[in-house]
Structures are given as C-alpha cells and as structure tokens.
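Support request, priority: normal
Reporter: lab tech (M.K.)
Component: structure prediction queue

Hi team, I submitted a job for Transcriptional regulator, GntR family from Pseudonocardia dioxanivorans yesterday, and the status page still shows it as pending. I've pasted the exact input below so you can check whether something in the sequence is tripping the parser. The sequence length should be 501 residues. Please let me know if I need to resubmit or if it's stuck on your end.
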Amino acid sequence: MVCVRTGRALPSLDRSSRYRQGMCCDRTPSLAEGQGVPPSWLHSAGPIVFRPASGRTQVLVPSAVPDPRDLGTAAAAAAPTGRFAARTAGMTASEIRALFAVASRPEVVSLAGGMPNLAALPLDALASEVGELVAAEGQTALQYGSAQGTPALREQICEVMRLEGINADPSDVVVTVGSQMALDLITRIYCDPGDVVLAEGPSYVGALGSFAAYQARVVHIEMDAHGLVPSLLRSALESLARQGITPKFLYTIPNFHNPAGVTLAVERRPEILEICASYGVAVVEDNPYGLLGFSGTIYPALRSLDRDVVYLGSFSKTFASGLRVGWALVPPAVRDRLVLAAESATLCPPTFNQMIVSRYLQTQDWQSQIKTFTEAYRERRDAMLSALETYLPPGCSWNVPDGGFYVWLTVPEGVDTKAMLPRAVTARVAYASGTGFYADGYGSRQLRLSFCYPTPERITEGVRRLAGVLTAELDVMRTFGVPTRAASLKPGPGAPSPDTA
Ligand SMILES: Cc1ncc(COP(=O)(O)O)c(C=O)c1O
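Reply from support: The job had stalled in the queue. We restarted it manually and it finished. Here are the results:
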C-alpha cells in the first residue's frame, strides 16, 4: 500500500486505470498538494491511500488481479530459466536475512529474532522420553500418519485450548508443520490472486509473506494501545464495500502481538467479531503467544466467542519451535479442504514430532514449564525497558508489553530504521526494521526489538549500542539537516525466517 496525503481531491487518475477508489487509513505524507500519482506507484504491489486535508481518507485498491505480465517480467528477470510462476515475484528475502551472516556472529547482540529461549527446558527428562518413544513405539512414530494429525495429539490440543475458553472437538483440529504452515494453507484455500485480506498494521512478517506468495493484497488496520481499533475496522470495511470488495478474512494476533507487543482489549473482542460477521468477512485468529502473559492472565480467545473463527495455535513458543508442531482449529466446512491442502503439501505432519509433543504434555508439568518461561521472559522484558529508559535519546517511544516477546519502538522523525540497520549491525546490534511488518513500505520510523533470546545483560548492552547508533544518526541529521537516507534494500515484508519470525 502506498500512502499519500493530498491537499485536494484525488490526483487525476486515468479512469481507465486498473484502480478504483476506496477506503481509509492514515499514513505518511509524501505527495505535495495537487501533485499527480507517479505512474510507478500505480504499478506497486498494494492499495494506495490518500489522506486529503479535508474530507474522508481514501484507499485505491487495484481493481483486478495484478497484471500478470508485470509480475511475469519481474519473475522472468529473476529466474535463470525464465519459467518461474508469476506469483514468485512477490517472494523476497527478509531484510535481516541479507545481514544474517554478520548479525549472527557472537559479538553481535541480536534483538532481531523471535527465537524462544529453550535453556529452561528439562532436556534430560526429554532425552529419556524420546529414547523410550523410539524403543516402545518406534514402528508407529517413524511411520507416515494421518494428514490431519494423530488423534491423541488433537485431543490434547483441545485440552490446551480449553485454557483460553475454547470448547473444541478434536475432529476439527488439523495439525500442521508449525502454525506458519497453517497460515500458508489457510491463505491458499481462501485467496485468489488480487483478493483483499485485512491485517493489523503492523503485522506478522510470516503472514505478510504468505499473503504475498498467493498475491493477496493487504489492507492494514491500525492499532492503538488496546489493539485493533473497531471503528477503523468498520470504516475500512465500509469503504471497501463501496468498491464492491469483500475481504476474504481479517488476520489478527489478539494477544501479545508480533511485532507491536499489544493485546486486544477484552471488551473489543465481541465487537470485532460482530463487525466482521456483518460484512461477511471470516476471522483468522493467530495466537502463538496467548499463554505467555507475564501476569498469568489468559485472555478469552476470539474462537471461544464464535465457532466460525479460524484459530491457529503452536507449540513453538510454549515448548519447542524446532519440532515444528502447530495446528488450526477450523469450522467443519473448512476442515475438509484444509486437510486436502495439507495432504498435498506434506502428506502428513511428522508423526515422530507429534508423538514427542504428546509425551511431553502427558509426562511433564508443561503448565509449570510455561510459568518458568514467562518468568524468564518477564525478566528480559524488564531489562529491555530499563535499558531503553536509561540509554535512548529523547524523541523515542515504545510500548510496555504484558507478555510475548516484543517491544515496538518509534524513533524520532527523519530516522530511517531500514537505512540504519547496516550501521547498527556494524555497531554489533541487530533489530528488525519496521518496514518488514507492513505490506506497503510503511514503518520506516519503527523497529521491533525482541527480548526473548539474549540474556538480560546482553539485552542491556544491545540497547546501549542501539542508542549509540541512534544518537549518531540524530547528530548527522542535526549537522546536515536531512533525514537519513533510505537503503537500497527491497521494500515489503520478505519471507519469514527464524531470524525475523
Ligand atoms: C504471530 C505469529 N504467528 C505464527 C508464527 C509461526 O510460528 P510457528 O513456529 O508455529 O510456525 C509466529 C512465529 O514467530 C508468529 O509470531
């Protein structure tokens, strides 16, 4: 989505262009009054937002499937054979991945990745459980299994979801290779190229990557300190309806949001469901962090209020991300298609890994383990917040997350966090710049800091280094009076990877 502010009505747009007039959101000013939209923007990936000085803000959503010739040309240029599918043009590597070789050196403090801290896991106990699994049930564990997942694990997943008020039938659960696979499959079965998906702005980079891979267009809905704003959701839907567009679904991360760190207020939850229902829009609730609240509060899932919600869950953050076990809980009408899609992707999720998770849930005190994890994460969050308070220059702001892994930081006007990233890595600190979390290139004043993995001491040191880099940027701006230059890294979300997930 390209965002512009205009002094008047929309810049003169060719009526025959492939764009129609639409809805709203407010964003970065970047067009002078009366200036026309550069043609290159009309061929950009997503909707174009206009914020007039007076009157309603509008979004132009490309009216049809992106021109396959445009995409085909890009794909052909990138493909040695020139034969890649047009949709591969939307697949790009994440920004941090380009710097990964440097960012993963031990001397660099990485505040970029969302890797869970597994140090607290009872590895000895797990080792003997795994050994016993192979000895006692190896013939089953090492064999193909059901495309939907093992019945035992699906039942246990229903027990886990009960903590969030969900009353589910195991036959509606589909086990996937991480919830990332569920996201990919849900997008595959819902979205044709050009379809519109609503997502919070910012949103999870892996979801944006899946939406891009299926050529869906993202309209972001802004959040405040209490999560997604219902009135903005309603006005976005109204505006899209005026264009004859019904989004395929709202993708939302209600708890301890990645990357924004906020939680959707409990009183907003029924309202959001009601708004989506009244416009015939499905809701996809992605909830990998729901049990990771620092105060022990577990919020009621949207799915607990409405059985039509598609719910995605994961053992990545509450147990072990390397096992790649996640799930989707779907209405029966969606289930059969999802299972077929899963089957065509992987035949079945790994039986061995599912059985390890099952044993873990059966034999270990997993709820106490989650408490141990959250205590460690809270200590790290506190270290990060106190370092931000101590070291950051004036003009920065951030949220105080009550769970999960992330702090979302806004830096002073003029600093471009994407341009600054290579300089930060040179100063031995890495972060995820904000633009990766928007489908439209917005977010250059934001960045995400993860506190999940490094020790509190490393976090403090990382923030101190980041503050040094920011201060140097501000000095350059003060001296030369110009914003920091945008880097030549590609815009957009990029593919998810463990270093940015
Ligand atoms: C919001 C969100 N959804 C989904 C995922 C994917 O998790 P999984 O490891 O289950 O694939 C992540 C990973 O960071 C995430 O933050």
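The radius of gyration is 23 Å. The chain has two domains: 89-118+368-477, 123-363. Let us know if anything else looks off. Ticket resolved.
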